Amino acid sequence: MRNATNLFGNLYRYHQFWFMAIIGIIPSMAMAETLPRGLGPASMDSYRQTIRLTFGSEAAARQARLRIAPLYHDLRAAFSTRMDDSNLNNLRVAEVMAQFGQKGTFYLNDPHNWWQDSIDTGVIVPRERFLEIPRRLLNGGNSVGGHTLNHEMLPAMSKNVAFHEIMGVRVALEVAAASPVSSFVYPFVFYQSELRQGDDRADLEDMLRRSGFYQLAEHRYNKDWDSGLQDGLFIILDGSTSNGKYSESVLTQPRCDDDRPLFLVTMHAWVKQWGGPEFPKLADIYRKWSGRKDWWYCNQNEYAAYRYQALHSRLHITVEDNLLQAVLTRPNPLDLNDWTPLTLRVEGVDKDDVVSVESPGAVVERVDLGASPVFDIFHGQEHGAVEVYAETVNAGNADQLDEVTSRTEGLRALLYRKGHVLTLALRNDGTQALQDIRVTFRLPLRWTEGVVRKQVGTLAAGASAKLAVTLTERTDPEHYSDGVEYDVAQVDFCGARRARLFATCETPNCKSGPSFARNGFWNLGPLPGDLAGFDPQIFAKAFLEGGSPQKEYAVPWGENITWKTLEPTKAAVLDPDIIPTSGKSNVLRSYKWDSTLYFPHEKVLYVFYGQIVSPKDQTVRAVFSRKCVKHLTLNGQKVEGEELALNKGQNDVRILYAPAPGLGSSFEESNYGCYFRLTDAEGRRVENVRFQRPRAP
After folding, report:
1. Which of 210, 304, 404, 676 has its CA 20 to 30 A from that of 68?
2. For the chain, what percent of residues have pLDDT higher than 70?
3. What is the pLDDT of residues 225-276, one digit of tens each?
4. 621 membership: H or E segment, kind and range
5. Cβ–Cβ under 8 Å, residues 111 and 172
6. Which of 243, 286, 235, 296 is nearest to 93 (CA)?
7. What is d(CA 114, CA 646) in angstroms, rounded to the nearest whole number?
């Protein structure tokens, strides 16, 4: 079914422009008067604008064909830069981009934290790093995008942590940069585990949509999966000025009208790879690919917003005498999170045939693109851009509004959750009324209500309001309730300026259910797999074959080692199907600065000791990585396949585990720990079992 959906989705995307064009030229036939809700795959609210084109004659008005251009100013392609991570030397990259009129997006982590691969650029950390660095990166028309708060491998995180990483970085960056964020890239370009059959990928997409992201700067993502997210053709050029014949052909090939791609170049602000502190190799790229008259040089917010509007806006056209009137239904810019105008082209007539173009309450600008009349229509004046961004944090889930000390344009807000009810309390402490108050609740995956919008309207000076949302728990809540829940209310309103206030709250939830493996094992390790004279399999042989566990073990590289568990708060960030090892995404030899983690070996192994309690004799299937699980014993018998014959009562489980670093990288999901899940023959989780740690050895 998913493959059929993908095929339909791809055909839909490729041909939708012409479908819309046909709708645009049909006179007022059966066009619904009801304003559509949930416009497009990101379920954006919409509004209408009226456009009036006066022609020199009735014949010209009836001959004219109005269409939405697939790309801004009907250009052939878009060109942009992508830079990942909160590298301080992004500031130098921005300077190089500006020299050549280039624009792009810096995909950042928590803006409180910055690192630097080289100080040779002369860039120093400013005092107000949270605010100053993101805002400096915007110079020249750039934007910032989300890359999670802590650069974690999202499929290895618990669902609540993953949502906080995605939603939280958007909140933090919009407040820090005072600029909207709608584009995202996955850390390590890692969005699914091979063991989950796409379930985690679908969950993460849902989190992105709930968080307000609708673009991924990664063209490979949609090749085998119709996500509905905007994407672009990404060419990695880290440290290269040409990337060989491939980039040359891609950047010069002709494109058809319904396939207007975004070319994304570069990826990281690494001084060494770019030839030194002045980034000469990067300058060579921009020198070569700048100044193309048929390319749109843009950032990702602009591109995503334009393409989404072009794909999902609608034109309803009527003609009377020499007047062509078009009703444009387009996404609300508060949901687009961008105020890029739409370009409309009038075909079938000369530009001299159009006497005037106007739209009540909106700016319309003519564009000189040859013989055809072309114009940009901006968003209506009542849909102006956000100027002020702020956040109120309720980390303790308090329910007293007076405990909130901060105000934005006079508005005080508090978000809290009690059980299945999420409440937003508002009070206008200013001296003037607040207008156009629109609240968007953005919720984690535990709740079936992903995005809930409510209109408050006007809040008079001194007045208060409360909005309550009753939440519906999903049918399989255990996997989605683990850890601390992060809820967000996005409050958009007009005071002296148009403002956005994020009210956030954090609520501890229940621990992972007993059918999850995370808390059911002791851990012995790390053990070196590359130490001369030491063989981990021989070391663990007696235990793996059923021998009694010892309290501690003598080892040749230092002090005796003992059975242990990862500290609970560190383990709780992981997916509950993962038996924790280090809880980190890279090999332990990388942590030279941390004596509690550093282990100077290329290969490491761990031994796990746990129990599965079953209410009956039953055979289940164990899902785990065969390349990492070197030995699995159940009740003293080595398991060769995936089936586990569980006895009624306690079942002894012993595992020898070896994390496998990814190709060319020390970052790998398996470094966090061992994925281990029990399913039935149809792949459904076995919920009548309980993982538990045996008594401490």
Report:
1. 210
2. 91
3. 888 888 877 777 777 655 555 666 666 666 655 566 788 888 899 999 899 9
4. strand 618-623
5. yes
6. 286
7. 50
Q: What is the three-class DSSP state of 662? A: coil
Cα atoms in the 13 Å half-sphere on the side-chain side of 168: 21
- Local structure of residue 133 (DSSP, 8 states): H
Residue whose pair of structure tokens reads 């014993």 in the numeric block: 633
Does this model's pTM top 0.85?
A: yes
Of 249-253, 291-295, 659-663, 677-681, the range with the lowest mean pLDDT is 249-253
CA distances from 289 to 181, 592, 675 (A): 26, 41, 45
Report pLDDT digits (tens) over 8-63.
Answer: 233 233 333 333 333 333 332 222 333 446 788 888 999 999 999 999 999 999 99
d(CA 308, CA 40): 8
Q: Which of 240, 241, 262, 259 is nearest to 251 (CA)?
A: 262
Which H or E element spans position 99? helix 90-99
CB distance 413 to 404 below 8 Å: yes
**Unique residue bearing structure tokens 């949509």:** 209
539 token code pair: 């070391």
The whole-number average pLDDT for the span 650-668 is 86
Q: What is the dihedral of CA 122, 126, 129, 132, to 10 degrees?
A: -100
CA dihedral for 44, 50, 54, 58, sign (positive or negative): positive
Question: Cα–Cα distances in Å, from 664 out to 215, 267, 343, 661, 667?
Answer: 28, 17, 44, 8, 9
Reference 153, options 169, 166, 168, 172; nearest CA is 166
Secondary structure of residue 623 in the 3-state scheme: strand
Confidence check: pLDDT of 310 > 50: yes
Q: What is d(CA 133, CA 93) in angstroms, rounded to the nearest whole number? A: 13
Helix 300-312 × helix 2-25 angle, to 10°: 70
Task: Please say whether the beta carbons of 120 and 144 come within 8 A.
Answer: no
Element (H, E) at 426: strand 421-428
Between helices 159-177 and 199-211, what is the axis angle to 10°? Answer: 30
